[in-house]
Amino acid sequence: MSDQTNNGLSRREAFSIAVAGGLAATTIMAASADEALAQAAAQGATPTFRLLLVNDIYKMGEVQGKGGFARLAAIARAEKAKGVPVFYAHAGDMYSPSLMSGFDQGAHTVELLNVVPPDVFVPGNHEFDFGKENYLKRRSESKSLFMAANLRHEDGSQLPGHEDRKIFEMGPIKLGVFGVALANTPLMSSAAGFKFSDEMAAVREQSKALRDAGADIVVAVTHTDFARDLEIARSRLVDVLLTGHDHDLRISYDNRVAMVESGEEGEYVTAIDMYCIIGEREGKRTVTWRPVFRPLDSALVTPDPEAFAIVKKYEAELSKELDVQIGTTAVALDSRSATVRSQEAAIGNLIADAIRDSTGADIAITNGGGIRANKQYQPGQTLTRRDMLSELPFGNSTVMVEITGKDVKDALENGVSQVDNRAGRFPQVSGMKFTYDPKAAPGSRVVSVEIGGKPLDPAAKYKVASNDFMFGGGDGYSSLGKGRTLIGKTDGKLMANVVMVYVRKIGKVENAVEGRIVAK
Fold first, then answer.
1. Each residue of 179-205: pLDDT tens digit?
2. pLDDT tens for residues 332-351?
3. Which domains are assigned to the chain?
């Protein structure tokens, strides 16, 4: 039948917009299903169901009136109370890093998220920062279903409390959901004992299995970087991608695949109202859908009382131990991620100097991504235990190795290889100076290196202090493990404590930016 009448006007048909169970469907006259869905959304009709996404939330309390678990709980509770089926997902990174996680390895985050638990939690790389036993313990405490189709025990067996995929009934719609973890997690975290497989292989396998099982709409919840997000979206294997890891507030829709990331720290939570028309073509069920995106600003909600009480309980416990002065700073300190991941930073110098002082090493190298408070300190400001533990929340310990000058240079090459992307591997150093060319090809960027005022000797041996994460190859620092181990993983001291002791010893921090790292 033609879509045009004899006078050239579009033929109007009645379309029934599927809505939540218990509510009458909305009937709209339109020329096509797409037009009907657009009208329904514009008129504020009740959506068929709703997707809700949070990712990368670390700090339990709000900052400057936004973010934190209590405001997240308020948003999730309110969305679930609107009478529309809601699928609520957390796309990973919660157990660490945070001030409290240094004490309880993320247990408080599970208690807080359980106030209004997501339907699905996909583990991020930071869920593994405290090792396998802790990950499995935190999982057992959670009320959410864990999904990661590319995660297994080392022997290939499924993890307890985990599923690869599941079909959720969203009113009349069968929503197929699967989870994917970051394949590079072992490089970034303490994931020994787990096996991570390729993300795209999991996407292909799981999306096919869900469609074969009758899913109307397929959703991937992933903790994957932006490059992989684009690959997943452009593959057209899924209808909706709910992702985390990059800390971006990002919404994308090309009329075929919707892709969303909700920023960081619960500052925003993204809702997607899904409008659906169920039809039939050649004897087969069809579902046409249209998303309406609603980024929800946490600053506009009142914190959930139950979650807020839990936050206050933990903050009171912390304050007794942490609000103790250890020194002052005579210089400005900047621990914002954009600074410590791209250039020499005064606070990076302080931390690296403390590590070198504690171990007696010739030089020290620490990764900028391990400096986490993301704040600025003014000259004359008091420094406390809380400050140092906020900056170094991972619980890493100091190590020292003896490696060749060539290995040192290789470590620095790795450190500046992704400076364009502000990767966490960017080095903060002590006892050395180096110059690099950010425009040169990765692996050939380091122009010169001086140690103790003398040019680096590729054949000489140097004592290098670092942290146990990097010593194990974390952030790509494989060259640090090539020489003789002088202080191993179980022999070192907690980095945060080392820095606290160092600050107390010197009294006043004067570790200014002084040309240790020079970009050509």
1. 999 999 997 788 999 999 999 999 999
2. 999 999 999 999 999 999 99
3. 1-46 (no CATH), 47-311 (3.60.21.10), 323-519 (3.90.780.10)
